Amino acid sequence: MTTLPFTPVLTLGDIVDLERYPITDRSHPAYLELVAHSQSLLGQEGVAIFPGFVRDQSVVAMADQTLALHPRMFHFREKHTVYFKPQEEGVDAQHPLRRLMDTEKDTVAYADIPADHSIRQIYQSDDVLCFIKDVLNLDALYRHADPLAALNLQGFTTGQQLGWHFDRSDFSVTLSLQAASAGGDFEYVRMLRNENDDCHDAVRQFLDDPKTQQVEVLPQVPGTLTLFRGRYSLHRVTPVEGDRLRLNAVFAYVDQPNVEFSDYARQLFYGRTTVEPLV
Ligand SMILES: O=C(O)CCC(=O)C(=O)O
Ligand SMILES: [Fe+2]
């Protein structure tokens, strides 16, 4: 008699630590307390972290599955200003509107993440979506509609990094899957610019001498979910050292439905404009 292999179907509670983060019961006092505390952290610090959001066993499985995808990841490399604006020519070479930062990382597009990768289950969960919406204190939140950009896995090998930058979106949501042997820390300077002022002088001073500002460091701890407000706080991922890759997932959520990338952005970030796999 042949026996079929038994693959247990994982529930959200098998993956996410629902005892610590009771996100499936949004009227529970513990949930309301968690949200209120996280909102105040996000307001004061610009960041809210949720250590142990994903259970250890699931994180290890997801890191292994992600590592197996590494040979097929898209190698992304870009030189950019901290503002992601095209370089301005009429200013001196060290001006932040001209100075270039180095970013290099390997990426798996949403369409290439296997159906049985648990990261999909987290991203597709309405409980997780509502939790993030509540912490951000938004009336509506949607998953990104782009078949490549909605959910990404990232790998950083030795020397790879994200250069200093301000995000073009109000917030980002990441989940650490594996820390590098060394380096690969997330560093940020709170509110180095604001809504009305790109603060070229302060940014320039900081790039010349990082001691002019207080740099906060978030070491990468696997299983930690991080919400970060990056539009006004300068941040980077420090160059990875050693053999072990820094692995994480980036969840794209937006406050509008049906948002997709342009062909230009798809080509830049994924090396293609359609979901057809790269050969
Ligand atoms: O990988 C990270 O931890 C940060 C990602 C980030 O800053 C970005 O994608 O803009
Ligand atoms: Fe960023």
TrEMBL record:
Keywords recorded for this protein, A-Z: Iron, Metal-binding, Oxidoreductase
Residue ranges constituting the Fe2OG dioxygenase domain according to the UniProt record: 143-254
A Pfam entry, by short name: HalD
GO molecular function, one term: metal ion binding
Family classification: Belongs to the iron/ascorbate-dependent oxidoreductase family.
Protein name: Fe2OG dioxygenase domain-containing protein
Source species: Pseudomonas jessenii
